[in-house]
Amino acid sequence: MDVNGSLQDVNVTSSIFQYGTRRNVASWQTVTAAVCLSPIIVLGVIGNLFSLLVWIKGRRRKTSTARYLSALALADILVLLLPAAEFWVFYVLHVDLRAKSWFLCKFYSYLTYLTPVTSAWILVAVTVERAMSVWIPHRINVECTIHSSSLIKNSFVVWLVLDLCLFFIIPFGIMLFCNISIMAKVVCLANARRNTLQARGGQTTAPRGGRSQKMLKTVTRRIIVLSVTYCVCNAPLAIYNLILISDGADDILNSEHIAGYRIVFHILMFLNNGVNFLLYCMIGSGFRKDFVGMFKSGSRTSTTR
User: Fold this and answer.
1) Cα-Cα-Cα-Cα dihedral of 194, 195, 196, 198, to 10°?
2) Could you read off the pLDDT of 213-230 as tens digits, one per residue?
3) pLDDT digits (tens, 9 = 90+) for 122-151
4) Architecture of the 7-200+211-293 domain
5) How many CB atoms are located within 10 Å of the residue 194 CB?
6) Which of 15, 113, 167, 230 lies 20 to 30 Å from 176, alpha-carbon distance?
7) Which InterPro entries match (predicted)?
């Protein structure tokens, strides 16, 4: 998403389109960006680095899911260091990096779209893989391999409508469908297992499952939480941009509030790229053990997640 927003924002933030690299930004925008975005960038980069280390050093490092999540961590780091950092420099330091040179203008214009789209589609890929592992578990090792996870490439243009489709609308639809199918399959399996246990003698509690079953539940729960977080954090900005390009934008949005919407929704979008490490720690005990194990001398991260 472009840090400079839509052309319909000209009347509200005309300072964006002034000549030169210095910008006159409202004080409340500077404070908001400094207080909210600074910890997101710093802690997000550190957290994603830790996540990357866990995924490439843990016991499950050879699985396609670990490769996808490693790629997701790298993509999130790039989002935080490039678009998010440019956004921070603009609103906190009042410097427009794109106005400094033709190269920086093209560089940030391209990567502002590339990095978030890449992050979104990596999450789509791992969500599809998780849905396949639930519905066709016997073929998951054939269809979702490390080799196939390295073949995903994204191509896109910088048009706003296409950006919305690639960054949110299409990923949101795919993830919504996959997560609904996962939950439906889980409910069906739980009902079938309960009926089987009752038919065998009225047993109402399932026997203790193996480690692989527990890991499957943890991984599935992790992917669902990541998908939901993505949708919650990115939906406001996507809806905002859809309204801006609609014919009734002037009737829906108050021009005095457009600048506030833009900065808040962008910060929320960047939050999605910085919060995954905390989600991993909250969901999986194996991830926490692997993370702690990296700091123990002479120990190896060999726990499952």
Assistant:
1) 90
2) 566 667 777 888 888 888
3) 888 888 777 777 766 655 554 555 554 454
4) Up-down Bundle (1.20)
5) 14
6) 113
7) GPCR_Rhodpsn (IPR000276), GPCR_Rhodpsn_7TM (IPR017452)
